[in-house]
Design a protein that fits this description.
By secondary structure, the protein is mainly α. 64% of the residues lie in helices and 0% in strands. The two termini are 16 Å apart.
């Protein structure tokens, strides 16, 4: 359980709502780390840019990136 509450869509500005929409489209729901990061819009923007850059990288095959992501999630106990 998180120590602080995440930003709910009713409290969010337009940028945070857009990010929530993108995350919901990709994962099916808005995960708690994104809601907590939404307290600081510049940090949320930087996180989004990093994720976009990593997804756009073409030096490694997409299937291998997916396998590495699953393996990492299993090692640290991440549920998604």
């Amino acid at each position: 359980m998180a120590r602080i509450q995440g930003v709910e869509p009713q409290q969010a500005n337009w940028f945070v709502r857009f990010v929530y929409w993108m995350v919901r489209r990709k994962l099916g729901h808005v995960v708690l780390p994104i809601k907590i990061t939404a307290h600081h819009a510049r940090l949320l923007r930087s996180l989004a840019e990093m994720e976009t850059g990593q997804a756009a990288a073409r030096t490694v095959d997409a299937g291998l990136k997916s396998l590495a992501s699953v393996k990492t999630a299993m090692l640290i106990g991440c549920p998604f």
